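Before a colleague's protein record goes any further, I have to sign it off. Alongside the sequence sits a line of tokens, each denoting a local backbone shape. I want your independent view on whether this chain really folds as the tokens say. Where you disagree with what is written, explain briefly why. This is what I was given:
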Amino acid sequence: MADLQPLKPVIHQDGFEVSFVKQPPQEIQLECSICLQLLTNPCLLDCECGNCFCKECIDTIKSSGKPCPLCNQHFRIIFPNKQLKRTINGLRIHCPHKDEGCLWADEMGKLSEHLNKLPVNDARLEGCGVIYISCKFCNCSFPRKDIENHETNLCPKKPYTCQYCGQSSVLDDITENHWPLCPKFPLPCPFECGENPQRNYLEQHVSNECDLAPIECNFNYAGCKVLFPRKEMPAHLRESIVEHMSLLAISHREIVQEVKELRIENHTLNLCLTSKVVDSKHLEKQLRSDLDTLKKEINSLKRNFGNKMTALKKENTSLKQSLADTSRMYKNVQLQVRALNHQVVTLFAQSGSASVSDPQSGDVCARKQPSITPCAPVLPPMVTSTIPPVELKMRNFKQIKAKKNTWNSAPFYSNEGYKMLLSAKPHGIDGTHMSLYVYIIKGKYDERLVWPFRGEVTVTITDQVAGRNETTGIVYDDTCGDCGNRRHTNSLTGGYGWPSFFELRCLSPNYLKNDCLIFVVDHVSVACLPAAGY
């Protein structure tokens, strides 16, 4: 009978070559014809080829709708070949790590249990000894056969308790950080007496117990300066009695002489102290006298201070009364000034004989003397047009007042077609007053209007709560220069009549709401003038 030919090497699904203990019969199909690896869960098809395939491989072929990869016939049913699976699992094989020293050889079905690649709890130490697994303390990998010794004896991160004081930590922390400071760690005696006392007891051992520690002679105070180990000191004391007595005699003589000198010095100090006591008594008497004098001076100063405080209080009361009188006078003057301001504005509207300053530029404009009798009106007959009230809101009033900025409203038209806008500006050191102007600007009806414009614009400052409004008028008369002339640009240079001034503090808090003042233009009175050239 001819010798059987060796089978082609079979590759396991984990990637290693399967090494059989005994060559299996050639009639057993070991390899999948699709993945060319050891059959896993072998299956038969209802086609005629009779070959077996891995279940996962043939499921992939079936799901794609392809025929059998060997006979090219379509199949419908897949039969698990349990007999072939038992046969393959019963074949004896060597451990894949045979070359690394593992001597395991057993049935193929027990290979997974032997490899134990995913160990659980205590089973992590069972299985192939050459497979590397992680230490549960330091996460380093070691062969399974060495991991127990590493975790028990060598791992620097394993839990460890100091055998001297009982402190718990990990091994490298105890050995590197704790032991150099542990109070109960044994240390060798520095004089090599053979004892190993604890660290916190070492100093006491050297000072009181160590036989080899050098100590001074008991007669060191008398002049014996030798050093001997503690165990040799009794012999030294016995052998040096004569020398010690001699040293004591010399020391006693020196002490007697020193005591004699101290007695003399003590007598001198007693005499000096008596003199100092007498001097201190005289000094105390003088200090008491000076203290009485100071007390008298302090009492006198207190009386003078009280008198001055009384006088100052009376003076303060008088000054307060004077300040109240001055305040009343100041209020009266303010009322008079306000009345005069109103008279000035009225006179500006009625008379053209005086000169007035431009409220914005400060230039003095000479008014022309009108050719009318003193009692005749300045303006010609007026046509009053009641326009729909134009509401103009000055927002951010506090900021405008603080910075003394000029505020300009949105433009509006009179019934006749004159285009205007309202302008306001704070005046005074603290913004106590505000001036109102009405500018004439370029409008779309200017060509059919009568120029120059002469008339009066009525502006009302709205009380936003109680309805008690303040009304003023801005006048354009024949002494305004070119203020009433037609405007060919939107420049605000010129174009405004005589201003109207009002005191801001005369407006109650009702006028200012949400930091906003509201002006309403409700009347524009136009003088009946003949048309003029442009």
About this structure: Residues 116-154 form one domain.
